Structure to design on (284 residues):
């Protein structure tokens, strides 16, 4: 759904066949979203993270971020996520206040760090397999088994493009989409950053109590597959990750170490399988 703050129209100069024209063009909005963690005393909130994002599905984004960063284990760890209200009782739509259950174990040293997350590379400096192991991440067990056929993979990229409403209007959005193993589109979220789009997707399923659905599905992301994407897929236990673009070397290593299937360069019926080929059914 296109919201009021998601796109804006700006006057641009378009050059076509040597002719210059001033026209209105739709551009995607990129704004910071600060997440604050309400401390038990209730007297103040701790600045937790600042994400550069496209407005929309902010609650889902926050929930997905908390989950994929290992701060919460399920939706019941969250008491409320709400927009901040200033002294004039006006909602501040770029600031969220997160309240967690008092008994949620928090690493406050971790929580006190202010993450500045760019829309292109995610949280930098965390590209470490050891960091994932310390979070308690374990290799995915193939139970129940999830398999996807080459025929089901063919055309997922076309379905993604057709479902990207904002990209069609602006050309400036990434997407994360969830598919059934037989190729049926379940959900899609768009954002200026592909990792934000994935957090929105994960957060929506977390809040709906549908994490099990993620564990039986195929994730498709626009652009490349980075360490950040694989980390979040691992935390959500998504077994098959497909990217329209290339994977990084570290993304492949994560997939290999944690038994994820990683597919890149999806173009119609063509793709490269970098890890977990046993989940892809070869034609007979």
């Amino acid at each position: 759904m296109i919201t009021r703050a998601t796109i804006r129209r700006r006057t641009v100069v378009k050059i076509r066949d040597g002719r210059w024209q001033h026209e209105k063009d739709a551009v995607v909005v990129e704004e910071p979203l600060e997440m604050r963690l309400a401390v038990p005393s209730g007297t103040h909130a701790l600045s937790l993270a600042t994400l550069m994002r496209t407005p929309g599905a902010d609650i889902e984004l926050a929930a997905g971020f908390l989950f994929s960063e290992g701060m919460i284990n399920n939706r019941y760890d969250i008491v409320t996520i709400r927009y901040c209200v200033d002294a004039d009782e006006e909602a501040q739509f770029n600031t969220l206040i997160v309240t967690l259950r008092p008994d949620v174990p928090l690493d406050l040293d971790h929580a006190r760090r202010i993450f500045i997350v760019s829309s292109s590379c995610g949280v930098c400096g965390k590209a470490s397999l050891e960091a994932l192991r310390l979070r308690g991440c374990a290799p995915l067990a193939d139970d129940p088994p999830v398999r996807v056929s080459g025929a089901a993979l063919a055309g997922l990229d076309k379905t993604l493009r057709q479902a990207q409403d904002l990209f069609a209007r602006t050309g400036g959005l990434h997407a994360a989409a969830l598919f059934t193993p037989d190729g049926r589109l379940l959900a899609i979220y768009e954002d200026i950053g592909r990792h934000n789009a994935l957090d929105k997707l994960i957060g929506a399923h977390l809040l709906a109590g549908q994490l099990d659905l993620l564990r039986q599905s195929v994730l498709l992301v626009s652009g490349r597959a980075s360490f950040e994407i694989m980390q979040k897929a691992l935390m959500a236990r998504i077994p098959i990750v497909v990217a329209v673009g290339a994977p990084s070397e570290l993304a492949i290593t994560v997939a290999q170490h944690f038994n994820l299937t990683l597919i890149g360069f999806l173009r119609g019926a063509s793709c490269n399988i970098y890890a977990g080929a046993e989940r892809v059914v070869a034609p007979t």
Summary: Residues 194-207 form the longest helix (14 residues). Confidence is low (pLDDT under 50) at residues 114-127. The longest strand covers residues 7-16.
